[in-house]
Design a protein that fits this description.
Layout lengths: L26 E2 L16 E2 L15 H4 L4 E8 L3 E4 L4 H7 L3 E9 L3 E12 L1 H12 L12 H6 L8 H14 L2 H6 L1 H6 L9 E3 L9 E3 L3 H13 L11 E12 L16 H16 L4 E5 L4 H18 L4 E5 L6 H5 L4 E6 L6 E6 L3 E5 H10 L5 H10 L3 E5 L3 H6 L1 H9 L3 E7 L5 H13 L4 E7 L11
Parallel strand pairs: 10-15, 10-16, 11-14, 11-15, 16-17
Antiparallel strand pairs: 1-2, 3-4, 3-5, 5-6, 6-9, 7-8, 12-13, 13-14
Length: about 475
Amino acid sequence: MGNSLKKKDSQNFVIIEDEEQYKRPEKRAKTEVQDGGPDPLEGFNVHSEFSEAPIKVRPLTEEEKNQPEVTNVTVYTDKDIKKVDPADLNDFIKNNTDIRKVVVEKIGVEEANRVEVLYDKKKPSEVEEQKFKKFNYTRRSDVDYISEEQETHRPREIKIDFKELDRELNSEFLQSSPEIKNEKRDEIKEKPESHLNFNKEFEEKSDKKFVFKSKFSEEEKLENEVDGQISKFEASDEEKELKKLSYEKHTLSKKRGKQHNGFYYKAKDHVELFKTGSQYLKDFKEGLKSFAFSSYDLDLIRQKTVFGVSTFFNYHTDVKTLIVSEGVAHSFYNEYMGIEKNESRQVFDEDITYDVGVTNGIELMDFEQLRKVSRKIRTFDFEDFVDFLVDSYDLILWDMPEVSVLDNQKEVYFPIIRSLDSVSLIVAKDKTKIKEVHELVGYYKRYQVEIKGLLYNPDGTEYKKKGA
């Protein structure tokens, strides 16, 4: 490395004019001198360096690719640690009462999984006491109290209903629109909260990038199960031990050396992109692959959201991704990424082709191509082609048109909606109305499509400049 770095792009690179001024000062080790003796590390200097080097991974041979997965089971008891054959694990657990932990490791060519099952011994009387404190509030001495200091510092769980969301999104927008203010606001106010019943709720108000919390956590489910089992214990002088289980799972997936397209680095906020993308990556690892994004009059914001999720997958995983959108030639995708080439592909054995734009790591398809196939397909059903399209990719992101377009061409969009695993609704401050949110949720719920949640844009603006 020379003494200075050349400027390439002021938006994406940090310019270092003089490398010498950025060197870290040497740190001198600090030791305590005992009994007045000399410092044993006198003149000893600590210096740390960091360097990067390209690493090439040797491609696997066919024999290595076909190697079977290996499962190792380790059982930790009160006395020792034992290796157990997976086939004998069930009998081993039944016949031993001193188990503290079971670790199962599954190692394959591409992925390694580790699951830990922890055993926590608890006596029935302790569980009964905990249950009594939880449900009996007749005696003040049995109630658990939280001090004022703990109450101040403990994390707050904020539940947001649609009335609150409406005020947040449209506080200024409603005030500037007398027609909505006078005629619609009372209607929104009177609408019951139960009109929309999500399976999941917002957990944090300050960070509205869908962080969701299930209504019942695993620990609460376990406590309910334990409480239900208490009544089955018969009175006995000798107390039996009740074991409480908890588990942890860690998965390490191997990246296959695929080069990413570099757009991930240009995101304005990598933390938000990582948090958002991780929600979809979790669903993807559970077998879901067809994700839709829908909104009212937020085309550019929606396209940027879809593009951000696609760059997250492109960087963190090795997947073949397709984005389907309206007007791809004039979209943000084409403007920002550019289409390297267009490929015409045949529809089964019929005399029909459809066009796909190919970029680095991501393919683009216009809804117009699907409408063309829907009109011309003869031997097969259009539903068959949609299924074929979904099966042809590891991940499909649908940049859905507005509801009015979907309703006007049901013969095209119903097979697509049927193939969706979930839909995310994009809303923006001072632009999205609560009525529109209700309509979007009601529309997709009618087709039994899972609503993943809301993606919130706090600015409510569509940027004209390029930027992910």
